[in-house]
């Protein structure tokens, strides 16, 4: 019987951690990382700050958990992406403004020296550029129709995706993020519906 109780407590603890991460996503989206406090997150989930510290001993630990959770939602399948499927990813992102807002706020703040996730984003962009170069190489070979190598075009592809997110977040009524990305794919020579 004690085993069942321990398992139930662990499940409750995992559920509470997930609730805290969701609340932290909301608070960071609203206030940015520097403006988000552990007290605000704790209040949102009905805990004291001490209660929250039981699950996440520091604000940085909570931030890492938020980014890891986001990465779980955005995990790229192990199968190879195609350029035309990237438009589906952009459409999916357009359905999750809160997540995109949190990610964008953290990304913007991370460029400052000493930010706790600067290294995370630096490594992430290295991986994303490499992944996008593989996508472009699979589609076009060693040269795109415009003569660029996949490695030279990959940062541009990433810049378009992220830049559109910022514009869309600022003015969603004026910026059709999925449509603009499909237009970009047309510039690459992709047939897009």
Descriptive key words:
193 residues; mainly alpha; elongated
Structure overview:
With 193 residues, the protein is mainly α. Helix content is 75%, strand content 0%. Helix 1 packs across helix 2 and helix 1 crosses helix 6. It is elongated. The N and C termini lie far apart (59 Å).
Topology:
Blueprint: H1 2-35, H2 38-44, H3 49-55, H4 59-73, H5 83-94, H6 97-109, H7 118-140, H8 150-170, H9 177-188
List how many beta strands DSSP finds: 0
Count of separate DSSP helical elements: 9
- Tell me the series of helices and strands, N- to C-terminal: HHHHHHHHH
Cα-based radius of gyration, to the nearest Å: 20 Å
How many angstroms does the end-to-end distance come to?
59 Å
- The overall pLDDT average reads 86
Instruction: Indicate the low-confidence ranges by residue numbers.
Output: none
A few lines on this structure:
With 193 residues, the protein is mainly α. The chain has 9 helices and no strands. The model has no long low-confidence stretch (mean pLDDT 86).
